[in-house]
Amino acid sequence: MQLKRVPSVPLITCDPYFSLWSPADRLTDADTCHWSGRVKRTAGLAVIDGVCYRFMGTGEEPALTQTSLDLTPTSSRYTFEGAGVSLTAAFTTPLLLSDLELVSRPCSYLDFSVRSLDEKEHAVEIRISFDEEHCYDGQEQPQMLGGVHACSFGEAAFMSKKQQGPLSHSGDGVTIDWGTLYLAVPSGEGKVSYEHQEKRSCLQACLSLQADGAGQSAGLIAAYDDTASIMYFESAVRGYWARNGKSILTAIGETAADHRTLLARCRVFDEDLLARARETAGEDYALLCALSYRQAIAAHKLIADREGEVIFLSKECFSNGCIGTVDVSYPSIPLFLLYNPELVKGMLRPIFRFARTPVWSYDFAPHDVGRYPYATGQVYGLLTGRSGEFGQGSVFPPFYQYPAGSQVYREDMQMPVEECGNMLVMCAAVALCEGNAEFSRPQMDLLEKWVAYLLEFGEDPGEQLCTDDFAGHLAHNINLSAKAIMGVYAYAILLEKLGRTEEAAAYRRRAADMAQSWEQRAGCGDHTALTFGDRQGWSLKYNLVWDILFRSGLFSKELYRQELAFYQKLCGDYGVPLDSRKDYTKSDWILWCCAMTDSREQMQTLIHPIVRFLQETPDRCPFSDWFDTKTAEHYQFQNRTVQGGLFMPLLRRAWEGR
Predict the structure, then answer these.
(1) What distance in Å separates the CA atoms of residue 24 and residue 6, rounded to the nearest whole number?
(2) Contacts of residue 602, Cβ cutoff 8 Å, sequence gap at least 6
(3) What pLDDT score does 55 carry?
């Protein structure tokens, strides 16, 4: 779909470190950068009949005229014109969620085609260069090394720091400081080289094409071997693609061999997803799905544990850098439930593992399992004096190894109802996708403890932190109570799937009683309040969507009708605020609310302001989920996997068809 404008365009989207974006309307208006905003220059030049023009990045050369940008879930395609030639540059990361090898493979396609516009033949040379800064973090320039491998599929140039320490830092707005960048071309399509000039190094590719009426095409592959991806408890683990000892050159060779097949598969997938999005809520919704798809996936790293099980670890981008955060996984799951629930199981496994370590002695679920790329124990809510010792780049101790009674965490800084509800709902959603609860069976002792916590504290949460405390902490949070109710019902789903029908019926009754009390105490005429007790204010009750997806019927249809009509009245230029205290909103939660209405028109009313935000925000960062509904300015968050939540209307539609 052709675009007028988005804040930043995804180019390479493999994982939280190998992530390249263009923060401009035209590819020549700014240098490419990492999602964090750190400049990672990738330059593109087209030498047409001996004259050099620029089509990517900044520089002194005259720029070709960009005539279009076409964005799909897996690809960003630019077209340019100049000197009698039309040039297309396409950036494709084949993140097809049904294929875990592809999701984990750190390889991305750069494809170019040229044709004549003036009925004359033109010699065109495409030159691509990746600066050395792709390989390190910070401004201090290290010594580099590089070279070219002759491979069975063609050539692969490589570049890396001479001295490096894999997994040498952790943090939020940091980029990789280890590993090796590769630029590869298939035989007969061009040449690659490692260059060191004027005290800087780069990888370069050169593709020679002939622009005539029919045109010609050629492509290359950019890949990054991080050598060690995640410190997963006791082990330094490589990406899922390398779990059986596969080398990066083999992975690049497979990517080259599968080029045409994968691009065709991507086209079919893109067309299907966009068509379903348009049918569900129109063109605006298709745009949201196209822009969020790669971002939501590439904010994770996919690995396998010692048993070969899938582990899918998010990075909490521009929040605190946590890894595997439960309240980041929870909003993201609609996308992954839609296409591959095994990835949701991959989010849950690390939390269950850490929850069984002696240091986690609580009756509620953890918040996270570390700070990216260290999955070595929760770092959120550390005791005063501990957390301040660990700034950006530093590495936390392996808290998972600490014995019981170590007093690592402040209990008042945890999110008990939030995370217990999240874990139970995610497990139930997986069970409904798979038709059984075998995944949850070994964890039922933990889940029983967590549902007991919800029964004791969830109906009217007291001093409980939650994921919506952006404007300050709230006691008696009504939306948090809705999550607790759905968590209790989720446990009933698991019991039913495990054949424990009498127990399941008892928990369903408990959830129904809680819901009836909730609806009576939360009501404020034409909407529900922000907190119990004073019945003041209002908030988006997005957690109620599971009542619809689970077909539990806990809440009245009139409640949904009133809530959605109220949200529609509150909708401003750039969306419905998250709650009555501030003007900012969260796009993921708006789309969860959209899935609670049967009206396509109502969905479109709530979705269009988010598209307007994308078109008018002054900030040039990847799709932010937290932004001001009056100014369109974003608040800190960017490139977060929570945008997988934008697929909730599609998930509801898919589940209704089962």
Answers:
(1) 8
(2) 564, 568, 594
(3) 98
Across the strands, what pairs with 39? Answer: 33
- Phi/psi class of residue 117: alpha, beta or left (left: φ > 0; alpha: ψ in -120 to 50)? alpha
Torsion angle defined by CA atoms of residues 103, 303, 34 and 327, in that order, rounded to the nearest 10 degrees = 100
Question: What is the edge-to-edge ordering of all strands in the sheet holding 51-56?
Answer: 51-56, 42-48, 122-131, 200-211, 191-197
Query: What is the DSSP secondary-structure string of 206-229?
Result: EEEEEESSS-EEEEEEEEEE-S--
Given a contact cutoff of 8 angstroms between Cβ atoms, the answer to whether 8 and 622 are in contact is yes
Query: Confidence band (pLDDT; 50, 70, 90) for 166?
Result: very high
Tell me the C-alpha distance between 564 and 567, whole Å: 5
Q: What is the pLDDT of residues 367-415, one digit of tens each?
A: 999 999 999 999 999 986 665 667 888 999 999 999 999 999 999 999 9
Q: Could you report the per-residue pLDDT of 174-223, keeping only the tens digit for each?
A: 999 999 999 999 999 999 999 998 789 999 999 999 999 888 999 999 99
Contact 550, 493 (CB under 8 A): yes
Burial annotation 431-446 (CB, 10 A radius, 16+ → b, else e): bbbeeebebbeebbeb
CB 246 within 8 A of CB 238: no
Distance CA 532, CA 482 (A): 12
With 90 as the cut, is the pLDDT of residue 480 above it? yes
Backbone angles phi, psi at 97, to 5 degrees: -65, -20
Tell me the three state secondary structure of residue 114.
Answer: strand
Q: Where are the alpha helices (DSSP H) in 523-622?
A: 545-549, 557-570, 587-594, 600-616
Asked whether the predicted pLDDT for residue 224 surpasses 60, the reply is yes
Residues contacting residue 113 through CB under 8 Å, at least 6 positions apart: 87, 88, 209, 215, 216, 217, 218
Q: Which amino acid is at 191?
A: K
Tokens of 356: 């069984």
- Name the nearest CA neighbour of 433 among 512, 501, 334, 326: 334
Angle at 601 (CA atoms; ends 596, 602), nearest 5 degrees: 40
**Inter-CA distances, 523 with 116, 417, 476, 532, Å:** 66, 22, 14, 9
Alpha carbon separation from 59 to 55, 56, 196, 271, 440 (Å, rounded): 10, 9, 19, 36, 55
**108 closest CA partner among 234, 291, 263:** 263
State the Cα–Cα distance between residues 161 and 146, nearest whole angstrom. 9
DSSP 543: G
Q: To the nearest whole number, what is the mean pLDDT of the chain?
A: 96
pLDDT in the model for residue 102: 97
Type of residue numbered 565: A
**CB burial string 615-647: b at 16+ within 10 A, e below:** eebebbbbbbbbbbbeebebbebbbbbbbbbbb
CA gap 413, 171 in Å, rounded: 20
pLDDT at 150 over 90: yes
Nearest to 489 by CA among 514, 507, 472, 471: 507
Angle between helices 587-594 and 557-570 (to 10 degrees): 140
Report the distance separating Cα 498 and Cα 505, nearest Å.
Answer: 13
Q: For the CA atoms of 362, 367, 369, 373, what is the dihedral angle to 10 degrees? A: -160
CB 365 within 8 Å of CB 450: yes
Q: Which of 291, 261, 275 is nearest to 76 (CA)?
A: 291
